[in-house]
User: Fold these one by one.
Assistant:
Number 1:
Amino acid sequence: MLAKAEAGDTLDTFPKYLVLNAKRFASRPAMRHKDLGIWQGWTWKQQLDEVRSFAVGLSAVGLERGDKVAVVGSNRPRLYWSFAAIQSLGGIPVPVYADSVAEEMAYVLDHAEVRFAVVEDQEQVDKLLSISEKVPSLKDIVYDEARGLRDYDHTHLHSFEEVQAKGRAAIEASEETVARWQAAVDLGRGTDLGVMLYTSGTTGRPKGVMLSNDNLVKSALHGNAFDRLGPDENIIAYLPLAWVGDHVFSYTQSYTAGFCVSCPESPETVTEDRREIAPTYFFAPPRVFEGLLTAMMVRMEDAGRLKKRMFDHYLALARRVGEKILNGERVPLLDRMRYFLGEILVYGPLKNRMGMTRLRVAYTAGEAIGPELFRFYRSIGLNLKQLYGQTEACVYITAQPDGNIRADTVGIPSPGVEIKIAENGEVLYRSEGTFIGYYKNEEATRATKTPDGWVHTGDAGFIDGEGHLKIIDRAKDVGKLQNGELFAPKYVENTLKFFPDIKEVVAFGDGRAFCAAFINIDLQSVGSWAERHNVSYASYQDLAGHPDVYGIIASHVEAANRKLSEEPMMAASQIRRFLVLHKELDADDGELTRTQKVRRSFIAERYGDLIEALYDGSTQKYVETEMTFEDGRKGSVRATVRIVDAKVFGSAAAPVREAAE
Amino acid sequence: MNRHVDPRQALPQPDGIATGEVLLDVRNVSLRFGGVKAITDISFDIRKGEIRAIIGPNGAGKTSMLNVINGFYTPQEGSIVFRGKERKKIAPYEAAASGIARTFQNVALFKGMSTLDNIMAGRTLAMHRNFFWQLIYYGPALREEIANRRKVEEIIDFLEIQHIRKVPVGRLPYGLQKRVELGRALAAEPALLLLDEPMAGMNLEEKEDMSRFILDVNSQFGTTIALIEHDMGVVMDISDRVVVLDYGRKIGDGTPEEVKSSQEVIDAYLGVSH
């Protein structure tokens, strides 16, 4: 509410915002930290003082313009302050994942050529000292928590307090010090390198993403405007500092919008601390939402009968009307009144438990969220939305606007972001937040960013009828059918895996006439069906080959095909033939990775005969497969696997069907 | 690691005993229960600022020794000098008031009380307002409560148990209960901390954590620590000097290296054919 008139002020660096905020929001909270069981707070004015004295101290220690400084640790005020302090002197903070092993950290610090490091505690100091030989550029280390460090050699080791004290003394000694610091701040430009974030990268070495101050400021401002974030927001900082999401939500948006960031007491107390803070703006990967829901459901199982019935009743009501009310659709008055009662009796207390009473905007990103999970939170009145982003884009690529939310898309392009879909289905974007390049890696930069500013996301997707982006697969996994239509195996597989009876699917189609699939049934789910219908079976193989089971799976495939046929881009990928595999895909046999992801190429090789059978029109195939038992013994399974045609929908169906025969 | 100075040297010495001087001296102590000789003529000392381990096979008299030190048992012979004062007989509460705190082999916490309350209980000796003042809970009583709570919160922070601050200790896993117990002993701000098997029943990670806490207590607060422990690796790693008991007698005393190479100690642990 406050200072709306000044909200239009845009500056180009965060230290400048800090100085501005110390004026316009002087006595409003900027930072909180729970320490010794009590929330300690700092106003913007105090935050300026903390940052400035640390910065002056740092320059006394020897930090110079252009120096890279590693920041390692958990979410603590002093580490956030060090971002601004480093930037105010023209240095570049390089946040590093605190839990990365020494080897990995050595690589990042050496690659970034950091000269200083600001770290949390003894653990990090030890880690840095152990790799100091591999990082010749590293000179001094500043630590926050002194515990256990007293008897270390302090020639190149400084406590945060000591550096700050040095700064305070210099400020008191001469009035010029502040003026000099302010001059250093004024020297900062939007085009300067603002921060370097290393992407963890699933393959190969991490890459240092260089983001300019302009990138960061402008994306933050766009984000603020999109969700109307102002100085009244409240957030809790609990995600890794080195992750672009945390950097944007807890640092750049806080400085540009002027809201308060709360740091938890310890990583273990986040849930409790969040309840006390009740953030208005919240960001979490799906697993956090899943964990919260599970914890609550477990507690509900122990609740009394009355409470349990009330809970079930109102959750059913919420499922029916909750999301409509949130989206502002028309809902009968009676249901509205019931929902209001539910708010008092169930939803309100639930939200309070989860620390979401005041929640106005919540985002989930990082991976696909289960539609059920997503709807649950929305149905109890939480404005949970999906976002699609990358480090290279300062987070924002697409986001769902309020009131226009669907579980299976990631929303419309964020303000200031242009999106296009490449020939091969890959999503490309261009925006003011687009990174400068990868540090010391021209080759990777060229491969990712085109000369005219488009960035390859590596994800394949399409834009649906209403302009929402839908991500379907990794771009490198996307292939083409013989007729040139796009084939995204993961999308097809996920559509099928939506059915609880189906545990795993491997879809084929790249370079083929049509799409076909291997299916693994879910032994638990199908097994309980068998029990209810008096179907006896001896093994997985036995059950998988049962004619009735084939019937069930065929109906699921049909339903999936119907769904696929509704998507113009996916209609050609309907499954025309499938088989239920005679053995479960297993990581022990190398068919899955240890994280339960399908190893496509390996399976294609191992089950080559079966794949051919899918495409040569045969109705059954005899196979022998070697497998590893749980105790490590090897054996082989023999089976005659039936191959079945599935019903397809839409216009594209007929010609391909003929081609198959 | 660049440990070039001993920090304890620099600590202030409020009780007039310098680091390295004898804090507790056990002189020719013998303890009998009827005809059973638990401890026979044992002498050793504990110097201020050190970590002193008491080891020995089962039934060697280690826990009895601790019980003698904190006044729970009164030895029939011998005497104990603590902070320069000799005493023959002392009640456990007097021992506590004189600056000795301990933890127990089997965790002895108030199971139904929260971590916070358990550690607050360790501050009892620092609470000077009487019951009626505390009932009023205003003015001096409130100030006292706040000061003590602060101390307790520092300990909670130190032991990294913020997340269980309000959890009843009965619901906590064993390793954490041990940590809470250490917290309660620390709350008394003892000059001498007795730890009876602080790592019994712990897994490797918990042991490493506990070792770190013990070392940190020792270096941060300068607390002198006497501990009984069975895990030889731990004992050899963290203690400055070791006393070895066997069948109630002292069979070794010295630095971990000296003790490790003593034939008598090896015999006691590995057994010898007679």
Number 2:
Amino acid sequence: MSRIRLETISKTFGEELALSKVSLDIQDNEFFVLLGPTGAGKTTTLRVIAGLEKQDAGHVYFDESLVDSIPPADRDTAFVFQQYSLYPNMTVYENLAFPLKSPLRNFDAADIDRRIKDAAEKLRITHLLERKTARLSGGEMQRVSIGRAIVRKPRVFLMDEPLSNLDAKLRESLRVELKHLQKTQEVTTLFVTHDQIEALTMADRLAVLNNGKIIQIGSPDDIYDRPASTFVAQLVGTPRINLFETEFAGGKLHSLKNALEFDATGLEPASKTLVGIRPEDISISAQGTFHAKVVLKEPLGVETIVHLQTEDNKLLAIVPGISHHQIGETVKFEVNSDRLHFFTTEGERIEAKGVAA
Amino acid sequence: MIKSPSKRRQLSDRNIILLFILPTMIILVLMNIYPLFYSLYLSFTDYSVISSVAPKWVGFQNYQTILSDTRFWKHFAITGQYTIITVALQMLIGFGLALLIKEKFWGSGIITTLILVPMMLSPVVVGLFWRLMYHPSYGIVNYLIGFRNINTAPEWLGSPTLALWAIIIVDVWMWSPFVMLLSLAGLSAIPDYLYEAAAIDRAGSWFIFRRITLPQVMPLLLIAVLFRTIEALKQFDLVMGITGGGPGDATETVSVRLYREAFQGQFDTGLSSALAYIVLIVIIAISNLYIRQLNKVREG
């Protein structure tokens, strides 16, 4: 229910630079994801917004008001920690009541009860209300800690990798529930994760962080289809994007041993250019212009990841369903040239001029 | 010369186990188990170690003597009063110190070490130098608390009401650090994120203390109470060092009386054994109450 704005936030821990001039503008009711590897500064960003950490430079605004000097309690955020952070020795009910019973708020008993029952129902933990938190499973604990966030309507939900301690099945179902919850509750949400699938599936918009810097901000489509750098390109998408060096010659890009050749219309001639191809943009077909040897197959049911070896490099391709190609067989393949990604050798994206990206 | 493995003398696992356990078992039986049961037997006799007469069975007579004598009840009352006050003060001061020391500040390390020093001293030494410090004419205690005139200054060890407090002060000074140490262990085990979650949940500081800090350190606090209670019920060395049980019998704890019965005057071994057993039963009963409470807290 609030717009959150970070203005050139910097933060160091001792010698270590945690955040470097991070600016974000998160819209009201937006589900915003911070994606990045461990140590990128995602959690620090969240803690700065919550007020648990004080930034060295820069400002935090909630709506239009500056909250830099406001303590965590008065910022009216709800924080879901990675380690559940339930109060031990209390029942689930008491845990959910805790944020409402604070002497700094006045909710009457009936209101508290109604809010708890409501939240419990949404998270399907009604049957656990009388249970002590020590006797809950990981998934149940995380539901309760999310419940503790939604019993009051905070200005913003801050979630620090809430799903990463759960097993894969549970993670998938909670992911869907969380997204649904966020849409029905209409609360601005900041969600931190290192899992690109979580980020792409849940986010309205996401920011990719690395080494305390924001690399790219955009919708999941933007990030996936127009990665700003090789770092982003490699971070999102499984299997990973195919990335290799090419040389410019005669208006075309050639892979180093000429196994692959691409049209370079609209590109500035450069001695070396990195080309990225998503595995789904390689299709194996008898009419293909290029050829390679099948070295490995990973059948996943819906699709098969085929490892191809050209004279230059290894490429991953995704084939729908089960692939019938034999290992060792030479196959022909085609590359969807509309969806090629070009990067400088430093990793910066090059937009081809005149070519619809 | 290589011996064949079969000829080599090898210890079987079972023998190794015996080798490790037996010495302990033998010492335990000789030093603890045997005296325990022998003194139980003696408590039902009129035996005295300095007489050459064999122990004669007298049944419950020793127990009857003790429990019907008002002077013995006075020792129990003194010990009980002493235990309750000293343990309560140690818990308050020890836990309070722990809450202060928990926050890291400049010099907190060295201050922690200094606070722990009294605990490391021998109780007899502590008793003797506090006796000097309490001395009405040249002791530093009265000087420090502002009584410079010998005639009006309190006589710590000479007054029947003050003497027990004098011992309590020393015991608290000596053992509050122990409570602090246990409390610190408990406090530092509380994860930060609980406090952070509480801060975001807008919990007040009293609320945080009562609902997070206290329940989390409770098991360790109860252990501290248990240890200190047992020690206080057995209090002997400090009393002997500071007052010797005086003035009169104002500070004569059960253990001091036990010592007098066993090793002074008549050397009444039978009676003192009976008294020792009564103390033992009281301590076991109280410990059990604590441990039951501890288990309840642990289960949450």
